[in-house]
Amino acid sequence: MKSFLVDLTRCTACRGCQVACKQWNKLPATETSNWGSHQNPKELNPDTYKLVRFEERIIEEKLHWLFFPEQCRHCVDPPCKAVGDGYAEGAVIQDPDTGAVYYTDLSKDIDTDDPEELCPYNIPRRNPETGIWSKCNMCNDRVKNGLKPACVQVCPTGTMEFGDREDILELAQKRLETVKKEFPKAQLINEDTVNVIYLVGYDPAEYYEYLMADAGSISPRLFHRRQMFAGLRRMRQTG
């Protein structure tokens, strides 16, 4: 299984990762307008899998720019797959070798338009024309061929690292020890449950409300639907 380490204390918001993601996945540009922030576009969308978020914060009486290159966390046990399976087997796939989680065309059968009901991190976005859900796929085609994800490949500051999960977890702990010398409140985010591990220097809520979440949770409404569909499948198999 593969994992990322994303050290937000090193991010300069160059947005190289955001552009590389667009280029590798051949995603079209998003038409935008000035909404009072350097962050562009304003939100994730079906054609934007990676978005560098900007926050201007006063922390301990000092102004800080906080940057957060947001993407799918590729959860170890992805709640979106649990939900997707309730509607259509194969709507959400997890690669057993890399841990990459991605959506297929069958995801159009997932009966919700609310990304938060699929994902506690509020990541996937649905194409309003096709109904298909999409998000970061870990550049699984690159990874399967021994290459790093495009975003990691272009990162100029060492913010992003990628490799075998055990090695990344070890690197994350070492990096945390170093970062705490300058940022005493530094912490790793959900490192036990996700494969995209963020290291923050400040309270994660200062960066973005969905930076930290419970990767083991799914919407109660969709959980009950999943159980209902599972029961129907068992009835068909035994009847």
Structural notes for this entry:
- The protein is of the alpha+beta class and 239 residues long.
- The protein has eight helices and ten strands.
- The chain has helices at 16-24, 79-87, 115-118, 140-144, 150-154, 165-179, 204-207, 220-238, and strands spanning 2-7, 51-59, 62-70, 92-94, 101-103, 125-126, 133-134, 160-164, 187-189, 196-200.
- The radius of gyration is 18 Å and the shape is globular.
Give me the secondary-structure topology.
Blueprint: E1 2-7, H1 16-24, E2 51-59, E3 62-70, H2 79-87, E4 92-94, E5 101-103, H3 115-118, E6 125-126, E7 133-134, H4 140-144, H5 150-154, E8 160-164, H6 165-179, E9 187-189, E10 196-200, H7 204-207, H8 220-238
Parallel strand pairs: 1-10
Antiparallel strand pairs: 1-8, 2-3, 4-5, 6-7, 9-10
Report the major sheet. 4 strands, mixed
Principal-axis shape equals: globular
How much strand content do the residues show?
Answer: 15-25%
Order of adjacent strands in the largest pleated sheet: 8-1-10-9
The SSE order reads EHEEHEEHEEHHEHEEHH
**Total strands:** 10
